[in-house]
Amino acid sequence: MNQQPIFLKPVFQERIWGGSKLAELFNYEIPNTKTGECWAVSAHPNGQSVVKDGPYQGLTLGELWSSHQELFHSKSPVFPLLTKILDASDDLSVQVHPNDQYAGEHENGELGKTECWYIVDAEPGAEIIYGHEANSKEQLVKWIEEGNWEGLLTKVPVQAGDFFYVPSGTIHALGRGIVVLETQQSSDTTYRVYDYDRKDKDGNTRELHLEKAIEVTTVPQSYKQETYDTFSREGITITSFVSNEFFTVQKWDVHGAASLEASTKYTICSVIEGQGQLLLGDHQYALSKGDHFILPVSFGPYVLSGTMTLIISSE
């Protein structure tokens, strides 16, 4: 069994709403000042992470998944999760994602897209769109046809440290001035509902997908603020955000040295603040803000030390 963390090099995606905060906050070398997405842990065909070093250096995550299943012990035919960091320097389009069944039927077998957001950074006054005010499909269709976006869309103010679970069927959008770490199913299927009549660099408005969007949108759909369980012990505070059929997501705040046991699942780790070390026997691995790595099945026991915050996810 491989007993070392698997560090990954991210893939960057240009977006009409992107900016340069991925460089400013995480010291990434981004391709341009319209960089909207860091695909940090990805085996999706539209952008695959690559192993940085060690015995699997140079392999894409998809290649590692297919050739070394002993590291993962998963029943999924594809790597099922995708970890991103998004820089919403402008408003994202209002959108909705299908579930597995709908995507499988209408999107060439693609997975559906349930996701969640941890707000890393938010400018004063920043807000997201989460859910809608329509009480029926008929009212949803009517307000969309009328362009009654103020009446339809629910806006929620956000600040750093907030968490939002966004199941498939949820109308949603990040507003400008927000940076999030997103954990999602490994899917790139998005149905745009509204895009503020923006034009791309060629002067064209972006395609909307209203028929599919209306079909998959959950009605009714109101925003409800959640509370989360927090557990503290020596060196670490663990906040559990969500655990369901798609993923488990936690926040680990390390303050000192925390001894951790081996897990029966592979674990995706993203350092979003601070720095420290991962200690495994005689081996020490430096960790810094912006690092992303996978701990394979049965990794450990190990120690995390330093002052840092990580978002942790698994199947």
Quote the CATH topology of the largest domain. Jelly Rolls
CATH superfamily of the largest domain: Jelly Rolls
Q: What would the average pLDDT be, to the nearest integer?
A: 95
Between the first and last Cα atoms, what is the distance in angstroms? 20 Å
Helix % is: 10-25%
What's the number of domains?
2
Largest sheet data? 9 strands, antiparallel
Helix/strand order: EEHEEEEHEEHEEHHEEEEEHEEEEEEE
Catalytic activity: D-mannose 6-phosphate = D-fructose 6-phosphate
Enzyme class: isomerase
Active site: 192
Organism: Paenibacillus lentus
What can you tell me about this protein's structure?
It catalyses: D-mannose 6-phosphate = D-fructose 6-phosphate. With 315 residues, the chain is mainly beta. Helices cover 13% and strands 44% of the residues. The chain has two domains: 6-216, Jelly Rolls (Sandwich), CATH 2.60.120; 229-314, Jelly Rolls. The strands form five sheets. Strands 1, 6, 16, 17, 18, 19, 20, 21 and 22 form a nine-stranded antiparallel sheet that branches. The chain has a six-stranded antiparallel sheet with strand order 2-3-7-14-9-12, with no helix packed on it. A hairpin with a 4-residue loop joins strand 17 and strand 18. The radius of gyration is 20 Å and the shape is globular.
